[in-house]
Write a structure and sequence with these properties.
By secondary structure, the chain is of the alpha/beta class. The protein contains eight helices and 18 strands. It starts with 9 loop residues before the first strand and ends in an 8-residue tail after the last strand.
Length: 335
């Protein structure tokens, strides 16, 4: 049993829809427009499975969906409650057979997560009742794996007393090997961008694009996190030498909140791989074009689909954080 690489063919992609009585209250209209853009982009390549919060008007949602040409590719339900929309971190992970749901405690107890923690079990019958559970706390955005079983992760958000008290790195490595088929570990350390509540999820800083290639959030001497970006470059360079990887360096923009001017953790590493396409977050920054050019080179056989994602940054996430793929291999039949 192993965690599938994210380029494995997928049947669908999960979303958890934003709702007004949440952290999205201050930019709710903008983030909903952003989510409709995400739906439209994903639906070109896979089904879209949406959790609609019970507090939302289901008739309004259905009516809006009916106006979209991609509506036939969308399934949705409104009987599962959640606290937050970042389903990447509490949704079930696709394994070579079936799915796995780790525990979720709001990124080490920072936020209320009781409802989020119950989502994976609530989705079980959509996944043929084939969701195994682990009480260990691990977020999906903290893990990236290639087909050789090498896990790329930032230790600060995995080996953490606030997530798994009294567990050593060796304990956690053994558990991940048992549950996800990890054969080797490529750990980063002390890499976290300003505003990142996750303590440095790997999906914001470095991603496998193939077994031997990693793209990452690149150096920028004018960036407020310039020292962290230099440290990331140095650590990845060491890992690349050890594992025989090629590295591709993405630009890193400086982005401030449109609501209050605070610095936001904007990166281009937070893309979604989906059935021969890269859904790529763009932010209306001068660096967008260069980032697209680099990812085109990193994924020469993929269609690159830019997706406006600036509203997601207001809650310190982006496109990959808002989505969770359902691999075809993990499903034995549909529904």
């Amino acid at each position: 049993m192993k965690l599938l690489a994210e380029w494995a063919p997928c049947q669908a992609v999960w979303l958890a829809w934003p709702f007004p009585d949440s952290d999205w209250a201050d930019n709710y209209e903008a983030v909903v427009e952003c989510y409709w853009g995400i739906v439209t982009a994903i639906a070109q390549y896979a089904e879209v499975w949406i959790l609609v919060h019970p507090s939302l008007d289901e008739q309004d949602f259905a009516q809006k969906l009916s106006t979209l040409p991609c509506g036939q590719a969308v399934r949705w339900r409104n009987d599962v409650t959640y606290n937050d929309t970042w389903i990447r971190d509490y949704g079930p992970l696709s394994r070579s057979s079936g799915f796995l749901a780790f525990g979720f405690n709001g990124w080490g107890g920072k936020y209320d997560a009781e409802c989020d923690n119950a989502v994976a079990s609530g989705l079980s019958h959509w996944l043929n009742d084939n969701v195994a559970a682990s009480e260990w706390v691990v977020e999906g955005g903290a893990l990236d794996i290639n087909e050789r079983g090498v896990l790329l992760a930032n230790a600060n958000c995995v080996v953490d007393e606030a997530r798994n008290p009294h567990k050593t790195k060796q304990d956690i490595e053994r558990h991940l090997a048992e549950q996800l088929g990890i054969t080797a570990y490529a750990w980063l350390n002390n890499i976290c961008l300003t505003g990142d509540d996750t303590d440095g999820h790997i999906d914001t800083i470095a991603r496998f694009v193939a077994d031997d290639c990693v793209v990452y959030t690149g150096r920028n001497p004018t960036h407020h996190d310039a020292a962290v970006l230099e440290l990331l470059h140095a650590q990845l360079s060491e890992l690349a030498c050890k594992h025989g990887w090629t590295l591709c360096e993405l630009p890193t923009p400086v982005v401030r909140s449109e609501l209050d001017g605070r610095l936001l953790p904007a990166t281009y590493a937070n893309f979604l791989i989906c059935n021969g396409a890269i859904l790529f977050p763009v932010y209306g920054c001068p660096e967008d074009a260069e980032a697209i050019r680099i990812v085109e080179c990193a994924f020469p056989d993929y269609a690159i689909c830019p997706v406006p994602a600036a509203p997601l940054l207001e809650q310190h996430g982006s496109l990959h954080c808002a989505t969770m793929q359902v691999a075809k291999q993990s499903l034995t039949s549909l529904f």
